[in-house]
Amino acid sequence: MFDDSTVNVDILKERAYNLRWATVPEGVIPLTAADPDFPSAPQIADALTKFIKDRYLCYAPPEGLPQFKESVAQFFHNKRNVPAKPEFTFPVDSAAFGIYVICKAFLEKGEEAIIFNPVDFLFKYSIETVGANAIPYGIPPGQEFVDFWELETLITPKTKMICLCNPLNPTGKVFTPAELKILGEIAIKHNLVILSDEIWSDIVYQPYTYTSIASLDESIRQHTVIVTGYSKSYGLAGLRIGSVVAFNQTHANKIFQASLHQSTVHGANVLGQIAATTALNECGPWLEAFIQHLQQMRDMCVSELNASKGVTCIAPQGCYVAFADITGTGKTSAEIQSYLLETAKVAVVPGLPQWFGTGADGYIRLSFATSQGILSNALNNIKTALNYL
Hints:
The protein is built from 14 helices and 13 strands.
């Protein structure tokens, strides 16, 4: 399912936008946006075809299709040891929109939310869009234990939320139960909401395992709201579908009102809900094979990057991005990104503040969710170009 012949570059050049194949110059390999180059599981295409053949594409219930809500709740119950309830579970237009909706629901103008540094820009963007302030907390790359009690020094009377990205994009760190326990205790102590972004939670490499902070105990769970999506695991980015899971009626009501789903102003599309339901119910073996392929690509990517002049890269525990330290080249992240684009014909994401915060300075990020042939060519081009610096 994941050999070189599976990736259709011609189709990707027509359809894969968002910094990927359809937006880069001819001859450039994009290791940029973290989406898979592989087609989605065949069961998903079959389910969509079956649904649309009757040609009735009506509104779904504003709170979501019942089968979607049930599938998401069962996933968290069976796979994450989280007692999610369908009535507190509902679809959103992507995990990105879910992050925004949660910020809108729980933050007022002038209040504060703590985010990690580095981390995906969507947290800061969402917090600032609703008029609040994002307060960064540094998380170094690697496996070193994070003592979250240090984070407590950032808490003020204005602090209302902690944003947890686990696994952490872009470093690939998977937080341990002990680390998460401390974070949960801080949230309880200061009555903070934990926004737990779990979109990467399927993509974890042996010997590491994923723990949802909502699985630790009931008191922590009551302070937690989970947001997740299906683009990373199942290649459904274009269907714009994610889900939000609350654990009490108060939280659920606040999020639903903030979502604008109660009107026709906003809502999650029906086809996305059908696709995600199928993914959760039928595509487990496909996902397992995808993760096995990704572990091989991760190992090759890290090995080749560490063999490149001026680069060091710690193997990510989760996610399918490599976060490579390029300070040994003597160049900035932006300079290396430009140099690789021109010389190696490979597009990467520079570690600039607008993408990941100040903690990404001196790094580049590369996605390895592609075929062995494409990745091997890209890494060879990178290594050759850097060795001539």
